[in-house]
Amino acid sequence: MMENLLESREAASVAAAAKVTSALRRRLDAGQSTSLVVSGGTTPARCFEELAKQDIAWRNVAVLASDERWVPPTHDDSNEKLIRDTLLVGNAKDADFLPFYTDQIAIEEQCRILNEDIRLAPLPFGCALLGMGTDGHFASLFPDAENLKEGLDANSLTLCIPVQTAASPHRRVSLTLSALARSDEIVLLFFGDDKRAVYEDARNGNINLPVARLLRQKRAPVSVYWAP
Predict the structure, then answer these.
(1) Cβ 160 vs Cβ 65: under 8 Å
(2) Are 57 and 91 in contact (CB under 8 A)?
(3) What is the pLDDT of residues 128-153, one digit of tens each?
């Protein structure tokens, strides 16, 4: 695991974007298609802006969310809306995108479909850009989720699960740890002293924090980017 503890959120966002770009470029420069998993929320917005400027073959990049609230893409809480408005612009406008939400079927059935659709993306993912909550969750793998054990099983064949948590008014779709670990690299970007304390607790072995399982898995190297 590589730690990058930086002085400003701007510096951390730009450095994280450079790390993601480098991971994608390795595949693209070898003539391969690749894929990028990204989180939602406010933390990655500046990083998305920086990524959208990068001069790489975005037409050969498949983008998908690490998780999604079960709301239409026009909703302010939609990660798809954030990704389309902030990342899939500029140079990155030609990237392919896999939407999670649909109003045609139930969330459980959509997760079954996504389990197959995600396997059609270039695997392993070139990079996964993730965030972390003050409760130690990443993607939508929250401590209170009834199916958290399945979500954190690094050897599971399930790549996508529905999630219900008291922390959100919306049901959610989340990639599992097993899916996220199928990445060439994982970039974990988070800000603030509260989250730094949670990260240190997880790094020191508090396995009650979901992010501890992300840090302990051995498949994908994790690079941490933090700023106050």
Answers:
(1) no
(2) no
(3) 999 999 999 999 999 999 999 999 99
Burial of 193 (0-12, 13-18, 19+ CB in 10 A): exposed
In the chain, the number of structural domains is 1
The CATH number given to whatever domain includes residue 29 is: 3.40.50.1360
pTM of the shown model: 0.98
Q: Choose among 156, 151, 157: nearest CA to 174.
A: 151
pLDDT per residue as tens digits for the range 150-206 = 999 999 999 999 999 999 999 999 999 999 999 999 999 999 999 999 999 999 999
Give the domain range for residue 204. 2-227
